Amino acid sequence: MILNMVMEKGMINMKDLHVCACGCSQLCKRTYVSGHYRRGKKLSDIHKQRISESSKGKIISKSCREKISKKLTGRHLSEEHKRNTIIGLKGKRGGLFTSKNKKGIPLTDVHKQRISDSLKNVCNGKLKGRYAKEKNPWFGKHPSEKSIALLKEARLNQIMPLKDSKIERMVQAELTNREHSFITHYPIFGQPDISFNEIKLAIFTDGCYWHSCPICNFDKKYKFVNEIKDKRVTEYLQSKGWTVLRYWEHEILANPDAVVDEIEDVLVSRYMSQQENTEVLL
Asked: In this predicted model, what pLDDT tens digit does every residue of 199-232 receive, in sequence order?
């Protein structure tokens, strides 16, 4: 629109204009419209490294953050985009103020005071101070059914913990070596560590400590909670037609090949039964 107004006033000659070289069909005086030079081009690893090194230690100003926020307000990301972002961030804990980068750096008195002030509002799980009872904006309020559904959906797409455990990586590596394609942390209730969606097979690798293995005799601190949770997840998935396999950490560490052999046997049997059901329907 601005370009048309300038042309109408005779400030730019039509002969001086040409189509942008990136293929966007916009007219410009130079080879590219401003900002279109890198459009569609991929950065090399060296270029990415240089950008990363030049950006280290830089803190974005408040005004710049506000501009970025204003620019992104109202944009809706697709489910695929959200999923790819989660997978891309998995296992990454970057940033200037992470515990890794601040290791060995003593806290300032101001920082200590801020932490102390923030913790004064919480005592034994109950809010104190300015957020106590009626002062809390959420006091007496209950989320609607729609809000609860949105929260549940958002939680399903969260991958926790961010990093795959050692036993998960061992099973994944062996399945990859045998040329099996699978999905990790599929967003369904229980979020299986490994799943084969086409035949509805869910695999869980349970750590002996966190899931209180009866053989390894770890501390029974988490036994009651996780036993109920694991049982509920298994029953729910089975009610939806899934086959659920669970393996203890000591089983995988002792013989990962035997574990994957058993998974392959179930894969074959599930695939054959699926084929038979398809033939019956036809």
From this structure: 999 999 998 888 888 888 666 665 667 788 889 9
Closest by CA position to 264, among listed 186, 190, 182: 182
Burial 101-127 (b: 16+ CB within 10 A, else e): eeeeeeeeeeeeeeeeeeeeeeeeeee
How many Cβ atoms are within 10 Å of 52's Cβ, its own excluded? 10
**Six token digits for residue 42:** 């991929």
Portions of the chain given CATH number 3.40.960.10? 166-281
Please name the residue ranges forming H helices in the chain.
2-8, 45-55, 62-72, 79-89, 109-119, 145-156, 166-177, 223-239, 249-254, 256-281
Q: At what angle do helices 166-177 and 256-281 cross, to 10 degrees?
A: 60
Q: What is the CA radius of gyration of the chain?
A: 28
Distance CA 181, CA 100 (A): 34
The DSSP secondary-structure symbol of 106 reads: P
The backbone region for 203, taken as left when phi is positive above 0, alpha when psi lies in -120 to 50, beta otherwise, is beta
Tens of pLDDT, residue by residue over 149-174, are 888 888 877 777 778 899 999 999 99
State the fold for domain 166-281: Endonuclease; Chain A (3.40.960)
Report the greatest alpha carbon distance in the chain: 86
Distance in angstroms (rounded) separating the CA atoms of residues 62 and 44: 31
